[in-house]
Design goal:
single chain, TIM Barrel, Urease, subunit C, domain 1, 16 strands
Length: about 450
């Protein structure tokens, strides 16, 4: 488990910040390069759960995987540029099934610059796709503009998909109107929520959100905390439970309905960690891997390091209640995985007005916590690549290293099957066959 408390001298923090800014070279180019390239000599973990291939060859043509397999069986085109990656491990780029590209009160940048910087942070850490499950009124339009420009090849970074603002209403009629507005914006998903309060939508209104979304060809995800709300959402036809059940063990009834309806589960364990971990200065603030993102993290690090902020966290019953909730949520990951429920990696990173949910860094912490919950490194890697892509229905284009899919790749200096923390040993990151991050 990551260490959650330790003091760090300010001088050390300042020194490491300077180093971190130059850790990676980042490219905003998104359009795939023309021609062919062959990545040779590496171990390939393809994101499907199949056994690794070593040594392997990956042929990339016009940004997509043209061939992958054992080196002896893959023909390299005569005109291909060869890149020797002997000793490295290649994964699909990480897919975050529940992140956020939102702007909050702590930002120091205009909306557009903030979003682009956060796309860079995701990419710097090997997260090449993010489903932003919930925008705010202040950033929805800009996120949609950036998404359009990205798909036109004008702007790079992590692939951005968005649900727009949450679909929440007081009546079924309002619910359908809310979903219709989002559908007209051509969002990629519909997100709604039940937070365990008397002001929550009633069952009929929730059902209207889900039904209207499905009629318009959109999948749905829901924010929940309680088992009863998860069950209600499943009964109404939800596609993804986007947070852990944290009040009690998931029961046989919920498991049976999730299996019958093929409902997926995104644990977001780091979401709860991020609520109470800042009751002191966490040890990970001093980690070089965390420091890599300080160009994006600095403002929030300063806020979270203040004694008054930490004291408020220590004295808040609501904050302290998240400690047992995280333990319960962690237990439920294993119960659901063992029952055959599809699990996808997600973090809730970047949620507006919730400082300390680090886009990029926390995806690696999430994978570590999923292993600690009882999944194997291979199972977690699948849940963070091909499995996550399938849950958000992007698996026809990305998430695994297979012919025809985009060459979104995370190249590592060490084998994550030996230790999941080896995902932090980043050599380079590729999007559409173009190296966007060089961590050598």
């Amino acid at each position: 488990m990551i260490r959650v408390s330790s003091k760090m001298p300010a001088v050390l923090l300042g020194t490491l910040v300077g180093l971190a800014v130059f850790s990676f070279r980042f490219s905003l180019a998104q359009a795939p390069p023309s021609g062919s390239m062959a990545l040779t000599g590496a171990r390939v973990i393809d994101g499907t759960g199949r056994a690794p291939i070593a040594p392997a060859t990956i042929v990339i043509t016009d940004g997509r995987i043209a061939a992958v397999g054992p080196a002896a069986s893959v023909a390299i085109p005569a005109n291909a540029t060869r890149v020797d990656l002997s000793g490295k491990t290649i994964l699909p780029g990480l897919v975050n099934a529940h992140g956020h590209l939102t702007v909050d009160e702590n930002t120091r940048l205009p909306v557009r610059e903030h979003i682009i910087e956060r796309l860079r942070a995701y990419a710097d850490y090997g997260v090449t796709t993010v489903m932003s499950l919930g925008q705010t009124a202040g950033d929805e339009a800009e996120v949609l503009r950036i998404r359009a420009e990205q798909r036109d090849g004008k702007i790079g970074g992590t692939r951005l998909y968005t649900a727009g603002q949450n679909a929440i209403a007081k009546t079924p009629e309002e619910a359908r109107a809310s979903v219709a507005r989002l559908a007209n914006l051509k969002v990629d998903f519909i997100k709604t929520r039940l937070i365990g309060r008397p002001t929550d939508m009633d069952s009929e209104t929730l059902g209207a959100v889900i039904d209207e979304a499905h009629q318009r060809g959109l999948r749905t995800a829901i924010h929940i905390f309680y088992l009863k709300d998860a069950m209600l959402a499943v009964e109404k036809g939800i596609d993804i439970i986007a947070h852990s059940v944290r009040d009690q063990d998931v029961d046989a009834g919920l498991i049976a309905e999730m299996k019958r309806r093929n409902v997926a589960y995104v644990p977001t364990l780091t979401r709860d960690l991020s609520v109470f971990v800042y009751e002191t200065t966490p040890a990970f603030f001093a980690e070089p891997f965390f420091q890599r993102g300080m160009y994006a993290y600095r403002t929030e690090v300063d806020l979270l390091s203040k004694p008054d902020y930490q004291e408020k966290a220590r004295s808040s019953p609501q904050v302290q209640a998240l400690k047992p909730a995280l333990k319960q949520g962690t237990r439920n990951v294993k119960l659901l995985f063992d029952a055959g429920i599809p699990i996808a990696m997600g973090t809730d990173t970047g949620s507006a007005n919730d400082p300390g949910r680090w886009q990029g860094y926390f995806e690696h912490v999430e994978m570590e916590m999923m292993v600690e919950a009882g999944m194997t490194p291979m199972q977690v890697l699948v849940a963070s690549t091909g499995g996550a892509a399938k849950v958000v229905q992007l698996d026809q284009e990305l998430g695994s290293i297979e012919p025809g899919k985009w060459a979104d790749l995370l190249v590592l200096n060490a084998n994550p099957l030996a230790n999941i923390r080896n995902t932090r040993q980043i050599h380079s990151v590729w999007i559409a066959g173009r190296k966007v991050v060089d961590g050598k």
